[in-house]
Write a structure and sequence with these properties.
Number of helices: 5
Oligomer: single chain
CATH architecture: 2-Layer Sandwich
Distance between the termini: 31 Å
Radius of gyration: 17 Å
Strand content: 35-45%
Number of domains: 1
Number of strands: 9
């Protein structure tokens, strides 16, 4: 059974789409931050894990959807930030570090790693002093495109799957995002490549 980790829940309406990533992420501060790990699912869910230089830990699970008009054009966004208990953040960071999170290669650097235009892209990001590593993987949890192309799964893809599973075993990311969607008021929304309309009843 998944551990209950919600301590604080903040749902806010954020105007201006250009600053949304900043609203969901913490800007690295060299004086206070030792490192920040992020796992981002498309552009609507971010697990952010922070290790501070004073030995403490912070983290949050953040969700975002765009409110849209009748033509499907985004007007503004709703963001949810859920605090992750500090000891859980420490545990996840430790496991990710052991799993090679900071050295994970980007899919474009890996032979036979498949990418596409639609579908879901997952980003693994490390920020540490002057060091930054971004590793993108398309349709990470699916074997379909590898099977269709007769390509064996690269070892780095399997490594990325294990890293993603480390966060997912603490809290089901799909379930958490669905809970967020269920709490939204009536209206039209978009996230990733999806469009959703909530109606009465």
């Amino acid at each position: 059974m998944k551990k209950t980790f919600v301590i604080a829940l903040i749902i806010g309406l954020v105007f201006g789409l250009q600053s949304l990533y900043a609203q969901m992420s913490t800007e690295f501060n060299n004086e206070t931050h030792k490192k920040i790990y992020r796992i981002e699912v498309a552009n609507y869910q971010i697990v952010e894990l922070i290790e501070l230089k004073n030995g403490e830990f912070q983290g949050s699970l953040n969700h975002r959807v765009n409110r849209t008009n009748r033509k499907g054009i985004a007007k503004d966004s709703i963001i949810q930030k859920i605090k992750i208990p500090n000891q859980m953040v420490k545990s996840i960071i430790t496991d990710l570090n052991v799993g090679g999170f900071e050295k994970l290669k980007d899919c474009n650097e890996i032979e036979n790693c498949i990418t596409g235009l639609d579908g879901t892209t997952i980003l693994f990001q490390t920020v540490k002093n002057e060091f930054r590593n971004n590793a993108y993987y398309w349709e990470l949890t699916s074997d379909y495109y590898y099977e269709q192309n007769g390509v064996e799964l690269p070892s780095e893809v399997l490594k990325a799957r294990k890293l993603f599973a480390i966060a997912n075993e603490k809290f089901d990311l799909n379930e958490q995002f669905q809970n967020f969607l269920n709490r939204l008021p009536i209206g039209s929304y978009s996230y990733g490549m999806q469009i959703m309309t909530k109606k009465r009843g």
